[in-house]
């Protein structure tokens, strides 16, 4: 019989940490003492619902995928169901997006996998693939353990225009990075798996799509009526955890079979004991906490780079907007905006009788952080000017605007990332089994990936404590 309840510390109050806390509550002993430490004053990390011109608007992540890579219910949908929020899931009412090509809008071709086409003829309106480059060479595109950049593979098979006009803006919208720098295995795992079997890229795309078929008309994305902060608040409540806001964990030290956390300001630190720890903060703070007792894993984790972005939202009185969910911008177009979403067009539940439109633009690409070193007013003005230029109509003066800056927000996964993460986790598991790491810096971006990452880490902790708990 256990002498006392397990004490588990979750460092980081984003959706990864909160999903981990819910899993600990659901699958750990009923009396488990869970404490979530969040260094800021707000939970949710990159999930943040705000208000502009009296209307709800997302200042961070906007939506989640409905399906997992195998075609089943995504971890975000499952969590919403667990929290009793599945009845509040809503879907886009307008799904068609556009690409900016030669200064004008062209519809995003259907049937691609993050911009990589399975039918070259289908993308002819946007890009011209290199003729006959995707030949069957008699062997799979990738070796069993090989990883390459997305851009390198697509460029070799379909040519540079497909990368620049389709794949790069698609990946840029998600990661703020370049296709030539991002790992295929981490950002497009289904395509990587297919590329280890198929001899052509067209064949690999089709195989990846067939492996996770989508019913005709089935929604790809969802969000919550009331905003994604609803998910955050419900998870915090359901976890039954003690929530410590404005509580930075500054040091982590192995002590006997457990851990000591140094929490709070350097002038007045607090020492806390725990039996297990889940680190769900970004890579660099994770590396700092690991450095004192796991130097090699810390060095690997700390090597992950991040991109910074700003999300600029305008409230426009009855503007002339196309019937689109938004548009993506290739870097070659020379605009500051890399993507834009017409919120009140895309999401029918946000449409207002007075015609007020909420339009959000994403600004900032990896390696171009200087573009963000201007005032909020300058960003608002630039976004308004570029939107007017792309749409070809004079947009009305905004009645309100908001700039949300996310410094160092989006991990940049270089080829080999998945293998490096596996090595880090194996080393930590061998030396410190009651410590787990999770989050976007390790497993990928997107709400479902982060939820699954946190839940998997919680399962590891439960297993470790089940064998050695107090």
Question: Which secondary structure elements does this structure contain, and how are they paired or packed?
Answer:
Blueprint: E1 7-11, H1 15-27, E2 33-37, E3 49-52, E4 55-58, E5 64-65, H2 75-82, E6 89-90, E7 97-101, E8 104-107, E9 112-113, E10 116-117, H3 150-158, H4 160-175, H5 184-187, H6 189-195, H7 201-211, E11 221-224, H8 229-239, E12 242-244, E13 249-255, E14 258-263, E15 270-274, E16 276-279, H9 283-290, H10 295-302, E17 305-317, E18 326-328, E19 337-342, H11 343-346, E20 356-363, H12 376-391, E21 400-412, H13 417-431, E22 435-437, H14 440-443, H15 447-468
Parallel strand pairs: 1-2, 1-16, 2-12, 7-18, 16-22
Antiparallel strand pairs: 3-4, 5-11, 6-11, 7-8, 9-10, 13-14, 14-15, 17-20, 17-21, 18-19, 19-20
Give a written overview of the molecule:
The protein has 470 residues and is α+β, with helices and mostly antiparallel strands. Helix content is 33%, strand content 23%. A hairpin with a 2-residue loop joins strand 7 and strand 8. The mean pLDDT is 94.
At a glance:
The mean pLDDT is 94.
Distance between the termini: 9 Å
Total DSSP E strands: 22
Strand order of the largest sheet: 8-7-18-19-20-17-21
Tally the helices: 15
What portion of the residues fall into strands of 2 or more residues? 15-25%
Overall morphology:
globular
Poorly predicted tracts of residues: none
| Biggest sheet overview | 7 strands, mixed
Mean of residue pLDDT values: 94
Oligomeric description of these chains: single chain
Q: Give the class from helix and strand content and strand pairing.
A: alpha+beta
Tell me the helix content.
25-40%
Radius of gyration from CA coordinates: 23 Å
């Amino acid at each position: 019989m256990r002498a006392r309840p397990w004490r588990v510390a979750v460092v980081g109050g984003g959706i990864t940490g909160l999903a981990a806390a819910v899993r600990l509550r659901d699958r750990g002993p009923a009396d488990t003492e869970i404490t979530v430490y969040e260094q800021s004053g707000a939970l949710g990390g990159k999930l943040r619902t705000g208000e502009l011109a009296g209307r709800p608007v997302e200042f961070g992540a906007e939506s989640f995928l409905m399906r997992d890579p195998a075609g089943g219910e995504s971890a975000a949908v499952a969590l919403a169901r667990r929290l009793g929020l599945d009845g509040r899931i809503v879907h886009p009412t307008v799904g068609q997006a556009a690409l900016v090509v030669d200064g004008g809008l062209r519809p995003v071709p259907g049937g691609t996998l993050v911009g990589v086409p399975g039918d070259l003829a289908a993308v002819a309106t946007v890009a011209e693939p290199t003729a006959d480059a995707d030949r069957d060479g008699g062997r799979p595109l990738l070796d069993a353990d090989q990883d390459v950049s997305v851009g390198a593979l697509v460029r070799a098979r379909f040519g540079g225009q497909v990368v620049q006009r389709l794949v790069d803006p698609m990946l840029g919208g998600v990661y703020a990075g370049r296709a030539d720098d991002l790992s295929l295995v981490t950002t497009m795992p289904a395509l990587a798996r297919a590329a280890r079997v198929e001899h052509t890229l067209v064949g690999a795309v089709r195989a990846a799509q067939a492996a996770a078929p989508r019913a005709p008309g089935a929604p790809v994305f969802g969000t919550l009526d009331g905003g994604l902060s609803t998910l955050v608040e419900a998870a915090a409540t359901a976890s039954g955890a003690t929530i410590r806001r404005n509580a930075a964990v500054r040091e982590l030290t192995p002590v006997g079979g457990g851990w000591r956390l140094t929490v709070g300001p350097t002038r007045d630190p607090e020492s806390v004991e725990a039996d297990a720890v889940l680190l769900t903060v970004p890579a660099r703070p994770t590396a700092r906490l690991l450095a004192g007792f796991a130097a090699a894993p810390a060095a690997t984790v700390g090597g992950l780079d991040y991109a910074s972005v700003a999300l600029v939202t305008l409230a426009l009185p009855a503007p002339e907007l196309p019937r689109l969910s938004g548009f993506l911008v290739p870097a070659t177009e020379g605009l500051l905006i890399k993507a834009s979403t017409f919120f009140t067009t895309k999401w029918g539940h946000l449409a207002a009788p007075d015609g007020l439109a909420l339009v959000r633009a994403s600004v900032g690409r990896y390696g171009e952080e200087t573009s963000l070193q201007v005032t909020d007013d300058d960003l608002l003005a630039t976004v308004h000017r570029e939107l007017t230029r792309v749409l070809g109509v004079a947009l009305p003066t905004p009645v309100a605007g908001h700039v949300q800056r996310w410094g160092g927000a989006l991990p940049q996964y270089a080829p080999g990332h998945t293998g490096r993460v596996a090595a880090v986790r194996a080393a930590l598991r061998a030396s410190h089994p009651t410590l787990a790491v999770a989050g976007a810096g390790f497993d990928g971006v997107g709400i479902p990936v982060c939820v699954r990452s946190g839940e998997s880490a919680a399962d590891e902790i439960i297993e470790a404590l089940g064998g050695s708990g107090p």
